[in-house]
């Protein structure tokens, strides 16, 4: 029997932008599906290029087809994943009254980081992040760039002061990862911790 939206835990928005590390975002979506959350997904044009470069996934651009592809790969129930287009200003995330309780931009390009720090709101990802900030909702950005310029650092500081969480895609090595998947899980576990979502991706420090 098809699931209804009410059967899922509250929606969490996940935006993939064009920084390296598409696997972090895809794994995050899978984990949120497993924990029973509804997941609202936005994928930038550049992120589609990164997905094609870094993974074997073939993700369609059209939101309805994208949602079906993500549902298939993550084993989600129908309706558990919704996808929104770049300029879908009617999407719930575009307004404070419809926004999800938390948003994660993972990975976050320095371009999107800059746009969020300056309130550009030129596409739905930027607008949704702007809404999260104004509504004082949880906003987590997972930038991946190195080295960082003063521009990047200033934007991160601006956002941290506004209450956003800057969570760089910087996997540690003290858990002795055996695989890329272990390194991806290191970062995704940190994101889930910030969202207050229980997981068993890896033991917590001291366990
Ligand atoms: C394969 C690939 C890897 C990239 N890696 C990075 C990266 O690690 N960090 C970054 O900030 N931009 C990276 N870029 C550049 C961004 O995709 C580019 O600045 C783009 O305009 C970002 O747009 P978006 O923020 O709308 O996704 C990469 C681009 C490609 C195609």
UniProtKB/TrEMBL annotation:
Its EC number is 2.5.1.129. It catalyses: dimethylallyl phosphate + FMNH2 = prenylated FMNH2 + phosphate. FMN binds at residues 18-20, 44, 109-112, 144. Residues 12-194 form the Flavoprotein domain. Signal peptide: none annotated. GO terms for molecular function: carboxy-lyase activity; flavin prenyltransferase activity. SUPFAM superfamilies: Homo-oligomeric flavin-containing Cys decarboxylases, HFCD (SSF52507). Dimethylallyl phosphate binds at residues 174, 190. Pfam families: Flavoprotein (PF02441). It is an enzyme of class 2 (transferase). Keywords: Flavoprotein, FMN, Prenyltransferase, Transferase. Belongs to the UbiX/PAD1 family. Flavin prenyltransferase that catalyzes the synthesis of the prenylated FMN cofactor (prenyl-FMN) for 4-hydroxy-3-polyprenylbenzoic acid decarboxylase UbiD. The prenyltransferase is metal-independent and links a dimethylallyl moiety from dimethylallyl monophosphate (DMAP) to the flavin N5 and C6 atoms of FMN. This is Flavin prenyltransferase UbiX.
């Amino acid at each position: 029997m098809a699931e209804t939206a009410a059967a899922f835990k509250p929606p969490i928005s996940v935006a993939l932008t064009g920084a390296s590390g598409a696997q972090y975002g895809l794994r995050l979506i899978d984990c949120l599906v497993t924990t029973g959350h509804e997941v609202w997904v936005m994928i930038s044009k550049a992120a589609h290029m990164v997905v094609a470069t870094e993974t074997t996934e073939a993700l369609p651009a059209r939101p309805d087809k994208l949602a079906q592809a993500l549902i298939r790969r993550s084993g989600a129930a129908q309706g558990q994943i919704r996808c929104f287009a770049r300029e879908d200003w009617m999407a719930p995330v575009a307004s404070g009254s419809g926004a999800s309780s938390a948003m994660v931009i993972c990975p976050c390009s320095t371009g999107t980081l800059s746009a969020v720090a300056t309130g550009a709101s030129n596409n739905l990802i930027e607008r949704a992040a702007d809404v999260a900030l104004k509504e004082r909702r949880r906003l987590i950005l997972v930038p991946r760039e190195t080295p960082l310029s003063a521009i990047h650092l200033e934007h991160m500081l601006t956002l941290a002061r506004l209450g956003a969480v800057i969570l760089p895609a910087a996997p540690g090595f003290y858990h002795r990862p055996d695989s890329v998947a272990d390194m991806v899980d290191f970062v995704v576990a940190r994101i889930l911790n910030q969202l207050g979502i229980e997981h068993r991706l890896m033991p917590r420090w001291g366990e």
